[in-house]
TrEMBL record:
This is MCUR1 regulator. Belongs to the CCDC90 family. The gene is Mcur1. The lineage of its organism: Eukaryota, Metazoa, Chordata, Craniata, Vertebrata. It comes from the Eukaryota. Its main location: mitochondrion. GO terms for cellular component: mitochondrial inner membrane. The keyword Coiled coil applies.
Amino acid sequence: RRLYFDTHALVCLLEEKGFTTQQSEVIVSALVKIMNTNLDMIYKDMVTKVQQEIALQQVMSHIAGVKKDMIILEKSEFSALRAENEKIKLELQQIKKQVTDEITKVHADNKLNLNLEKSRVKELHAQQDRALTQTDRKIDTEVADLKTMLESHKLDNIKYLAGSVFTCLTVALGFYRLWI
């Protein structure tokens, strides 16, 4: 089965937009599965060219038989054949309507599946954004705590340094006084 888009290019595009390789491959894999499922559903309702030709040949042979019967029965049952012909036309119109309804249903199912996948991707993206925001907040809090701790230690060091300088100065002045 052929894919009508470049899956590798889509993976690369998703990676450029911030997804990881694994996330990108999972999304592309999901899209391919959805497309294959939808194509399977569509192919179930379709006929092959051979089947169509067989049906056409059957219809043509049926028409030929009807023409022959019409010539034979033209005088006696022509009005009955017309009524039967109208009935067949109505049945064909009903079948055509059913086929159209089925195609519409498959189209709606495909659209719904794509919308569901879009909403899932958006929700995943929103969850990642929330987790990233929480991580940023935690980092900012930790940085602020570290800055506060650094300032506290800096003030303690200044106090000890000032105390040490004054103590050394006092000791030096004491020695100076003793020698003089």
